[in-house]
Write a structure and sequence with these properties.
The complex is a heterodimer of chains A (about 375) and B (about 300). Chain A is mainly alpha-helical and about 375 residues long. Chain A is about 60% helix and about 5% strand. Chain A is globular. Chain B has 3 helices and 21 strands. The chains are: A mainly alpha (about 375), B mainly beta (about 300).
Chain lengths: ~375, ~300
Amino acid sequence: MTAPTKAPPAPSRHVTVRGEQIPVVLPNRRDPRLKLSTVVISIHVLGQTLLDFKVSIAQILISMAVCGLIEGVITFRNTRVLAWPASGVLTGSSIALILRASGTVHGDYWSLNGIEFFVLAGVVSLLSKHLIRPTGRHLFNPSNIGIVWCLLVVGPNQVFAQYLWWGPSIIGQVLAYLVILFGAVWILRAVKMIPMAVSFMVTFAALIGLFALGGREFIAIWHDGPIGGMEYWVNVALSAEVLVFVFFMISDPQTAPKAPEARVLYGATVAAVAAALIYFQQTEFGIKVSILSSLTVVCAVVPFLEAAVRRRREGAEAAAPVPAAPRAPGPAVRPAGLAALRRPAVLAALIIAVATPIDTALLHDNKQVILIEQGQVGKANAQ
Amino acid sequence: MTDLVVPGPSTPRSQRVLSLLGLVAVVASGLVGGNFLGLRETLWGSESPEARPAALSRDAGQPASGPAPTTAPAAGETVLRSQPWWQGLTKLEGRGSTTTSPFTVSQDALQWRAKWTCDTGRLLVRAPGQARPVIDAACPGAETGYSIRKGAVSLQVTADGPWTMAIDQQLELPLNEPPLPAMTAPDTKMVFTGSLYRMDQVGTGTLNIYQTADGRHLLRLDSFFVTANIDLELRFSPLEAPRTTPQFMASPSVWAAPLDITAGSLNFTLPPDVNPAQYRSVVVWCPIIDSAYAAVTLRQP
């Protein structure tokens, strides 16, 4: 999810271990990541109380602890600083917000059912963050790639993503939308991501609207019969799940482009890729994986998006000799071509960028997913 | 942590090995994620069982002359599974010790049982290849013995007097019964119809109620599926479209039929004292947990 900016270090505190003074950086009230954590935790509270989320408090806490621990260890190893692992904790919290282990029952607050999948998703998230850095910064949104990996590799027999429909509690849904929308304004304004979010929502809503008009339908375990027409559009385009995705996941400044124009293009591209993958899906599982996968795919091409926007800007500057606008921050794209593929990080990113949409598309006629969404696997709680 | 940014020729060997392992993991993830060659379902299991032929009858109709197929041809294959139910295989009877004529237990069967009776002495029944006897009891008596042996089975009976055994096999396959002849008789009319909708669990399929010329009522479920559980039953409700268990329970309902099979196409004869015209819906009810699984609103065809 979004990790807006890094908190200013405050290394005035320290601990002494075997004679070595190790600086300690505690959570800072002004850290923007705390805003996001507040929103995510608020949604978790609603999920546990009003929204019947099939995730336990134990799953949430362990997911946060594992990610926080990994992040803390890596940070300490790299910087010799004991820092509060705000990003790691946020990644774990975000994973628990979206990922579900099949068979978990709402209200079983200390259930460890499928805890290994939460841990796996966290490990994959943080490994991708610290290992796949072809441009010198992490390429993929950590929680996104961890969840997508889990949904595709572990698969529908064991895990699924939070339902698109957050009912049946009307009060719960109203409160959830309020938290999401106020949280969106609170956070996106700070990181200048509102145009990106609007770009995504407009493109996505329009394309999903076209699909609905074209008679596309999907089946979901929580719904009796296929979902089509206006219901299709509302449940996909306006789902609280999608809003969480656009406001708090794709808006991560660390993995989104830096330049404002590139961000608008990025939002529209994520929406277009998501819609393209959704078009073929006939199950809610497939649609949710499509939405999440679209970010994985587009994150892989963000350096190219930034380069394209930069070239366009430089072309415009060359044509009109006016004072140049400040160059967008961020690393330059390194020389492309086959030589770049010799770098493992580039190769890994390429494989992920190609495999993710293929694997997602292959879900469209997966008999197991269809049977699960029809509720016909014979289990009372298949998801 | 190893950084894969630029592992050039001077990169330590360990880092190159880790990079290679990382790439292998990424490629493997891509292959498993696409379920290529069924990799994902092999690794993590599948909720989609192998397609198998549905059963055709509650009684396999074992002819006396020898074994016969107990399931439908491949054309009726299905991945759906029912609550396990007992399909009649054959009835055996005799006096004194003997080896019975063989009966065939389907490879799809979970187990089989012999419901026995005997009058005098002792009854000992062994299945070939099974150390523990299926039955070893004093007579007179009437109980049930079980076995999991599949294929052709001839029982070795040691007895002092007359005995009977009713052999059933337990299946979890759906049952696709053809409609009863009375349902298609010229004087029979369909009086109610409807489609199942889910309540606490999943329920799909259609329900038709027929009235025969002699006033009997027959009920048929087609392409039916409900989430499996034991001791489910069909009940008539005066509510037009109950949506919740408390709503259903608030109105008096009457028992219509037992639902020992939870998938397929099934026939039932309704109790003579129940008039469907007095009710507006049929509910799949689980008395064990007091839960309305699914329901059908009755409409005139």
